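Subject: UDP-N-acetylglucosamine 1-carboxyvinyltransferase structure
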Amino acid sequence: MSKLIITGGQPLHGKIKVSGAKNASLAILCGALLAQDEVVLDNIPDISDVRILLEIMGTMGVKVRWLGEESLSLKSPDRIIEEAPYDLVKQLRASNLLLGPMLTRYGKASVSLPGGCNIGVRPMDLHFKGLMGLGAEMNLERGTIQGKTGRLTGARVYLDFPSVGATENIMMAACLADGQTIIENAAKEPEIVDLANFLNALGAKVRGAGTDLIKIEGMTHLKGGRYTVIPDRIEAGTFMVAAAATRGEVLLENVIPRHLEPLTAKLREANIEVEVSEDTILVNATDVQTKSIDIKTMPYPGFPTDMQSQMMSFLATVSGTSIIVENIFENRFRVADELKCMGANIKVEGRMSVIEGVPSLQGAKVKASDLRAGAALVIAGLMANGDTELSNVHYIDRGYTNLEQKLTSLGALIRRA
Ligand SMILES: CC(=O)N[C@H]1[C@@H](OP(=O)(O)OP(=O)(O)OC[C@H]2O[C@@H](n3ccc(=O)[nH]c3=O)[C@H](O)[C@@H]2O)O[C@H](CO)[C@@H](O)[C@@H]1O
Ligand SMILES: C=C(OP(=O)(O)O)C(=O)O
């Protein structure tokens, strides 16, 4: 098991190019199952979640070919092996996004309950509600989701919560259903819009993505096409917070600043300078008097839960009292215990944490409990005095392309051991 060794105290300086979005790529890769012809995707991040999903799709009969570091070609088969392999599916949450495409294109799906990070209870009831609303027969048998159907029929589906995954699964299933589907209280995340744009590039008719009402006209088939995935707003955000936390200055290239507005607003509230252009963001924290802030995680365009842990590390040394309320995933405060080992003063009470800023953190042996907790502990290690030894690095590899190389190019002292 590899570890990251981080020697703290170096402000980050320089520029980096942000990679393609993990969460958009995973949904779009699953969406490629809907196309009859070849699909070529650009700006795909080289992360373990993508590699594992491609392995799963390969075992199901999809022909996958990398065309370069960030581009690949996919050709789905006419008949699929409908059983997604258990040990691979268990490794990532996004394997649940195979359900909608498999059911609507092939009429059958067998996918074990997905794995991923342990960030809280992650039920599938809304995915079931939507797919059953379109006419699929869904069952859970000994931990495996079994679905079957003839051609799905368009329907009106109200989501009790704007779930990202459920919106994506229903949207993909509806693309080949008979008639119109309307998703009410749909998720509005940028990755939903990216998936809709991709599906439309294949000939689908998805309207309203990015609002809470999505309308899909079902087609008999989708063709192939070429599509470029959006940049990863969470990777970009992680580097923005790392720049702020180390009191450095970092220019991010290949970003869509609008997607980062909730984070930009909060960093500015904390007195960090953030300059935005059409596709770059400059974070400058070299000469600032930081200020404590409060954060509440919410569905987009609220503050993203996937940026909450990284902000906790940053706020650990911001003088005054900051409060974070986590409204999406209840286990996302586990990182607080690790930060406390590094000298942070954090109290957790249910969904709320209270952070009293301390003058500095000290390096320690710490463990990532999930992907973003891992990123948060890397940031804490960069801020701390002395060495930090971070284990469970495989979580970080799920979602960050060349993290050590990118940080090293910004002057960080970080290596894998
Ligand atoms: C691969 C991917 O895109 N992952 C993202 C996706 O996860 P994911 O799609 O799993 O997240 P959801 O939006 O579905 O989950 C949000 C909330 O809805 C609840 N819920 C969800 C589904 C359901 O059927 N029933 C239900 O109650 C969950 O328990 C959670 O409290 O959106 C999350 C919220 O922005 C992000 O943190 C993840 O990075
Ligand atoms: C929670 C995350 O991902 P997943 O839904 O794939 O576990 C994340 O990206 O922070």
